[in-house]
Amino acid sequence: WESVIRDTKYPLNFSIQSLYISTDSESGSEDTIRVAMFKRGRDWDGKVLIHFYSEWRAFDSCNGNSYLNNIPTQRNKIWKISRTATHISISCNGVEVYKKRVVAGSCSNNEGSFKHLDVDIKFHPSIDTASDRFTTGMSVSRV
To answer: pTM value?
Structure first.
């Protein structure tokens, strides 16, 4: 596990890895996890947000906002973000709380396209207030 250094890019290949984020933020704290994804280099590819409002919400670049259900009640949480060419999913402490269809490259908005699985990720420097530590299950390096 690595400490989150915001506004720093880290390589992640979703075809063989998932992103795990630890936090002790609670529902109603108004904290947010925000992970931006970039095609290797600089091109924008999408983002995922998890909002710690009184009602849990998630946002992804293709599907917009959705409410999350069945969030485990433990204060310390491990969030897992996974992507394939056809789906994005979010789990919390091993419970899947979000799964949406994503057809890579078919998103027709300004929020990104999710065209690539081999990306660089970056935790937003001011919006991401919840992410404490992260891992991809493999060694982590900075770009």
So the answer is: 0.89
